[in-house]
DNA sequence: TTGTACGCGTTATCAT
DNA sequence: ATGATAACGCGTACAA
C-alpha cells in the first residue's frame, strides 16, 4: 500500500479507502489505485486488517473427524457457504476426545476466528469449555451433535422425525414386530431416533417391546450380533429399524446368512444414507440427513449472529427435515417399477 | 499482556519473553507470568504475532471437493499431522474449476498462510497462478493431482504400480483378455494407471488391444455403457480393470445383468478402495490409495520446506506404494477361506 | 536479567 | 475529497 501511495503521490489513507471502495473517494482516483494495485499484484493482508478491525474473516469448525459420509458433506456445505460470504474456514478434529476439543477451541481463539461451528465429540459431557467463546464474544453454532436447550444456537436434523418416518414406513409395509437397533442414548441423535420409533408404534397402537430393542455401538459387527440375538427369540421380528446404516447392514448380512429373505421375511431400514446402502443387495432403505443443507444452514445462522454483534440476539434452533429414501430392503409390495439405483459418486 | 505487565510491575517485553520461554528470563519470573496468564485466561493473538514475525501458523489446502472417500481421508491426515506440529489448516474447494482454484489461492495468500497443499482441479491446464505463491515465498506441495516434473514438490501414489498390480493379479487368475476402463488421459493419475496395465500385459507377453480399452469419465453409468460395448464384441473380455471403483461397479452390474457370473465368467478390479466396494456382491477387488499417509507425507514435506526457508531446497517427489486388496470379484480360485469383509466405518 | 522504542500492514478518527 | 496520526497485539534490536 505504501508503494502505491508513493507512486500515485497520495496518502496511504486514500489508497486504503480506494481499495475498500469508500464513498469519499472519487471514481477517477479509485480507478487509478485499482489499476496500479493489479499491476503490482497487491494482496491485502487480512491479518493486519483483522488486527486493526478486531474482526477476522475466518470461521472455525470443530468436528469429531472428517471421514465417512456425514461430516465431509457437512464440511463441504460449510466451506461452500462460507467462501461465498467471503470467509475462510479453519478445520479442527476432536477425534471424539474432549481434551482435543478443548485444545481446538483454544487454537481457534488464538487464530482470532469470527465464529465457531461445533459438532460435539462423543466424550463431551461437560460444556464449560465453550463458555470461553462467549466470554470472548465469539459466536457459536452447534450442528448435529448439539447441546440441548433453548439457550444455544444449533442446527439439527429432526432425528425423531427420521425414526418416525422409517418405522411408519415399515408399518405401512405390513410389518408388526419391528425391532430397533438403538445407539448410545447419551447422544441425543440416537435418543431421538428411538423416540420416533416409539411414536410410530404408539400411533399404530402397538406397545413397545423391550425385547425388540438392542443397544449397539452402531458398528456393523454389533448389528450382526444384535440380529443373532433377535432371531434367537421365540417370536423374532419381521422388520429392523437400525439407527445407522452400518449396523443395519450387519443385521441384514446376518439375516441373509441365516437364510431369511430380505425384505420378504425381514424388512430393513437404516439411517444416514451412506453411499454403500445403494449397492448392497438389496439396496437399503435409509434416511438422508441433508448434510450439505445442514452446513449451509449452520453458516447462515452463524453469520446472522456475527452481523448482529452488539445487538441482542435470541438463540435459535434450526431443525431440518429428514428425507426417507425407500429402497428394496424394505419394499414388500413393489407398486411401481423401480429405477436402477445410481451412485452419483465422485470420480475417485 | 499489558495487563499482566502492569500487575507484575514488569515491562511487556518481560511478559512476552516469559510466555515464549525466552532463555533470558529467570524461572521464577516465568512461573509468575505463566500463573497470572492462566488466571486471566490469556490467549495469545496469533495474528498479531504472525504480523510481527512475518510467519503464520496456518497452512492452506486446496482440493477439488470434500466428498467421496479420497479427499476427506487425505484432509483428515493433513489436519492430524498439521495440528500435531502446531499448525491450523484452512480448507478451500476449487469445485474442479480453475477460476475458483485461483480465487482460493488469493484467499489463502491474503490469510498469510505459511504454506499451501494443492490437489489440482480437473480443469487446470495452465499452472501460472501458482507462480504467485513462489513470488511471495509461500512454499507449495502438490498431492495426488500434481504438476509433473522434477521442479515441484509433490506427493503421489504410484498409480502405475497400482495399475500394474491389478492387471498382474488378473493375469495370475488366469485371465487373458483383460479390458481396461481408462480415465481422462490429461490427468496423469489415469495415464499412469493405464501405463501399469500396459506394462503388466507386456510382461506377460500379451499385446495391448485397443479394442479392449474404453475411455470413460469414471462414472458408474459410463462403466455400464463400456461393458455393453465390450460384451458386444466378437471376442469379449474375461476380465476388466477399471481406473475407478464407480465405473468398475457399473461394469459389474451390467455384466451381471447380462447373466455373466463374476468372477468366473468375468473378473473385475477397481481402483480407490471406496467403502462401497466391500459390500457389493461380490465385493470388488481394488487398490488402496493410502489417503491418510498421503496427507501426512504432504505435511511433512511442506514443513520441511518451511523450515528450510532461505536455504536452498531441492524439490522432491514422494511416491507412496499402493496396496492391492484382493476380494471375491477377481478371485477365481479361492485358496484360503476368506474372512467376512467388515466395514470399519464410522458410526454415522 | 530487564526495559525502551519501534514496526509489522491496515484502518478509524479527526482535521483540512 | 484527501491527509496526518494513532492504534490493533506482539516481537525484537538495542540500550541499560
From TrEMBL, chains A, B:
Domain HTH lacI-type, first and last residues per copy: 1-53
Q: Which GO terms describe its molecular function?
A: DNA binding
Q: In which organism is this protein found? A: Hymenobacter koreensis
Cited Gene3D superfamilies: 3.40.50.2300, lambda repressor-like DNA-binding domains
The UniProt transmembrane annotation reads: none
Looking up PANTHER family in the UniProt record yields: HTH-TYPE TRANSCRIPTIONAL REGULATOR GALS, LACI-RELATED TRANSCRIPTIONAL REPRESSOR
Which keywords annotate this record? Answer: DNA-binding, Transcription, Transcription regulation
Give yes or no: UniProt keyword Transcription regulation.
yes
Protein name per the record: LacI family DNA-binding transcriptional regulator
Question: What PROSITE patterns has UniProt attached to this entry?
Answer: HTH_LACI_2
Amino acid at each position: 500500500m505504501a508503494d502505491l501511495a508513493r507512486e500515485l503521490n497520495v496518502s496511504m489513507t486514500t489508497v486504503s479507502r480506494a481499495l475498500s471502495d469508500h464513498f469519499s473517494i472519487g471514481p477517477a482516483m479509485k480507478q487509478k489505485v485499482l489499476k496500479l494495485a493489479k499491476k503490482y499484484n497487491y494482496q491485502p493482508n487480512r491479518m493486519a486488517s483483522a488486527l486493526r478491525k478486531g474482526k477476522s474473516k475466518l470461521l472455525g469448525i470443530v468436528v469429531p473427524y472428517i471421514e465417512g459420509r456425514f461430516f465431509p458433506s457437512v464440511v463441504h456445505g460449510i466451506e461452500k457457504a462460507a467462501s461465498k460470504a467471503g470467509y475462510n474456514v479453519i478445520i479442527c478434529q476432536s477425534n471424539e476426545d474432549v481434551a482435543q476439543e478443548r485444545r481446538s477451541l483454544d487454537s481457534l481463539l488464538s487464530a482470532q476466528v469470527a465464529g465457531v461451528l461445533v459438532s460435539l465429540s462423543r466424550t463431551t459431557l461437560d460444556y464449560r469449555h465453550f463458555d470461553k467463546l462467549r466470554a470472548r464474544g465469539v459466536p457459536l453454532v452447534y450442528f448435529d451433535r448439539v447441546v440441548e436447550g433453548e439457550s444455544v444456537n444449533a442446527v439439527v436434523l429432526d432425528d425423531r422425525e427420521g425414526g418416525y418416518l422409517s418405522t411408519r414406513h415399515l408399518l405401512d409395509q405390513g410389518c408388526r414386530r419391528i425391532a430397533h437397533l438403538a445407539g448410545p442414548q447419551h447422544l441425543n441423535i440416537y435418543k431421538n431416533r428411538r423416540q420416533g420409533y416409539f411414536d410410530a408404534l404408539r400411533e399404530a397402537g402397538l406397545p413397545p417391546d423391550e425385547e425388540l430393542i438392542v443397544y449397539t455401538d452402531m458398528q456393523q459387527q454389533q448389528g450382526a450380533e444384535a440380529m443373532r440375538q433377535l432371531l434367537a427369540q421365540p417370536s423374532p421380528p419381521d422388520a429392523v429399524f437400525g439407527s445407522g446404516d452400518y449396523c443395519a447392514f450387519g443385521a441384514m448380512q446376518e439375516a441373509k446368512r441365516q437364510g431369511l429373505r430380505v425384505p420378504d421375511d425381514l424388512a430393513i431400514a437404516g439411517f444416514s444414507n451412506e453411499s454403500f446402502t445403494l449397492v448392497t443387495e438389496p439396496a437399503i432403505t435409509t434416511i438422508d440427513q441433508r448434510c450439505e443443507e445442514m452446513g449451509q444452514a449452520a453458516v447462515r445462522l452463524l453469520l446472522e449472529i456475527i452481523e448482529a454483534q452488539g445487538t441482542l440476539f435470541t438463540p435459535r434452533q434450526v431443525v431440518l427435515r429428514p428425507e426417507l429414501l425407500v429402497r428394496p430392503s424394505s419394499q414388500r409390495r413393489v407398486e411401481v417399477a423401480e429405477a436402477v439405483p445410481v451412485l452419483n459418486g465422485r470420480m475417485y
